[in-house]
Amino acid sequence: MSSFSRTVGSQVYRFDDLKTVLACASSRRSGDELAGIAAQSEEERVAARMVLADLPLKTFLAEAVIPYETDDVTRLIIDTHDAAAFAPVASLTVGGLRDWLLSYTADTVALRNVAPGLTPEMIAAVTKVMRNQDLVSVAAKCEVVTAFRSTIGQKGPAVQPATAQSSHR
Question: Taking the complete model, does pTM exceed 0.85, yes or no?
Answer without folding.
Answer: no
